[in-house]
Design goal:
It contains 6 helices and 10 strands. The chain is an alpha+beta fold. It folds into 2 domains: 14-77, Winged helix-like DNA-binding domain superfamily/Winged helix DNA-binding domain (Arc Repressor Mutant, subunit A, Orthogonal Bundle), CATH 1.10.10.10; 82-236, Chorismate lyase-like (Chorismate lyase), CATH 3.40.1410.10. Strand 8 and strand 9 (220-228) form a beta hairpin. The radius of gyration is 22 Å and the shape is elongated.
């Protein structure tokens, strides 16, 4: 690599300047997904900066999800995380399409099930049944999230449909528009079954997104409980 000195007199810290340079190189395709970036010493020599500065930049880019470090092998460009904007209602398929990723779905369960206490969010009594649809959502064949959607029983027609695509597409075809949502975000840990579906070790930390979705008339439409791999998905608020 050609030597390139960062701006020592800039108000921007050197590690942030290196982060911007590497981020731009990744986004422009200089370093494609899965490619190995230069070793720490090579970056030190190229940009004439200390190893401490290089390590801080790489650590921050790893935290952002742009890089992943493999012990004894080096630092590699990771698969970009999907980004969900919580300010609007978007299906998983929409999110994938916006980032040129190919969505796919494994339907784990689709049935009428007894209502839970938390189904009161969609104005159900405990003795009622709900339409429960459990799916693993994948991007480019890699598992990203496990989602459980629960609808009032009047939506039982969904059980007769192809559930490997967009549920919101099916709803819109019947004149139902998901329009608003209340979100709760927390941290949880993968159970043995969740870990199997998501391709992680049991006990792995997952993002938990619990939502109540409302239709165009302001009526509760469904609840959604999503268990998400944080290394493959992030939120914008």
């Amino acid at each position: 690599m050609k030597k390139s000195i960062l701006d020592q007199d800039s108000a921007s810290p050197l590690y942030m300047q290196l982060m911007r340079k590497l981020r731009n190189d990744i986004n422009s395709g200089v370093y494609p997904v899965h490619s190995r970036i230069p070793a720490e010493q090579e970056l030190c020599d190229t940009y004439q900066i200390s190893r401490v500065t290089v390590r801080k930049a790489l650590s921050e880019l790893t935290r952002e999800g742009l890089l992943e470090r493999h012990q004894g092998k080096g630092t590699f460009v990771s698969i970009p995380r999907l980004r969900l904007d919580l300010r609007s209602i978007n299906s998983f398929n929409d999110v994938c399409a916006a980032m040129d990723r190919v969505p796919s779905t494994q339907v784990v369960q689709a049935q009428l099930a007894p209502a839970h206490p938390y189904d009161r969010e969609i104005h159900l009594e405990e003795q009622d049944e709900v339409v429960e649809i459990v799916r693993v959502r994948q991007a480019d064949g890699l598992p990203v999230m496990l989602e459980t959607n629960r609808f009032p029983k009047r939506y039982s027609w969904l059980l007769e449909e192809d559930l490997t695509g967009s549920l919101y597409g099916l709803l819109r075809s019947r004149g139902v528009e998901p329009e608003q949502a209340i979100h709760e975000i927390s941290l949880c840990y993968a159970s043995a079954q969740e870990a199997k579906w998501l391709g992680v070790e049991p006990g792995t930390a997952l993002l938990a997104l619990d939502e109540t979705i409302y239709d165009q008339d302001g009526h509760p439409l469904h609840t959604s409980r999503q268990r998400i791999r944080g290394d493959r998905f992030t939120f914008r608020i």
